[in-house]
Amino acid sequence: MRFGCCLNMVASEPGGTGIEKIHTLAELGYDYVELPLAQISTMGAEEFRELKRAVDASGVRCETCNNFCPGELRLIGEDADPRKALEYAGRGLERAQALGVEYTGFGSGPVRSVPEGVSPEEGYERLAEFLRELGTLAEKHHITVLIEPVRKAESNLINTYEEGCRLAADVASPAVKMLVDFYHMAVEAEPAEHLLKFGRGKLCHTHIANPAGRAFPADESEADYASFFLALEKIGYNGRISCEAYTENFEKDAGKALEFLRRNCGR
């Protein structure tokens, strides 16, 4: 497996990408960095050039992105503006391609939530329609968009891996697959066995955090990580796993997390 980190979760400087932590990430021995597509898509041209220079100089590549859409956008209901969302996506995907990104997660809970007055069925169809268009756009940039199920506190649509896999099947795009986040699975009490039942051939990327406080994982006793790792092994997953977690001591906690991942997932 390859191990990375979502730096926007630990950002301390304006812009919110966390790029100021990338050299520490490299020194700790992580294999890649995961940066937020929403921030990348909205930054100015010179700011993006500076970010790319920082990535190039760090020795680690930006292989994946998270945080797909700016939070103010909506895809469903009266305030929906899927055209604007696709404009953001086009700019973000173009820049992601320039960075060498292979996958970008599509979590963006508030963006895809179903508002009052819209049925869950209609909301689901609107989301599926958007993802079909997004898949076509992503193919042009040689990037795969990954549906990320998120906890109900963040969205009322697609909260489990089972639901996400059904959506991916309905979208039926070669550029729309699946991401699973251990944190969201744990919060929603979704069994790891769902990865075996629904995940073969669909899962392309994973996130992890300690469910207690969405912290960096450090110890096997914190949660039932073992069932998650075993399920990944059984479906033959040998891709990337990114820490998507908060901390006030990045160097210390990210270092412990990398040791934990190497101990449990091997190299």
Automatic annotation (TrEMBL):
GO terms for molecular function: isomerase activity. Residues 24-263 form the Xylose isomerase-like TIM barrel domain. The keyword Hydrolase does not apply. Signal peptide: none annotated. The lineage of its organism: Bacteria, Bacillati, Bacillota, Clostridia, Eubacteriales. InterPro entries: IolE/XylAMocC-like, Xyl_isomerase-like_sf, Xyl_isomerase-like_TIM-brl. This is Sugar phosphate isomerase/epimerase. Pfam families: AP_endonuc_2. It comes from Ruminococcus turbiniformis. It comes from the Bacteria. Keywords: Isomerase.
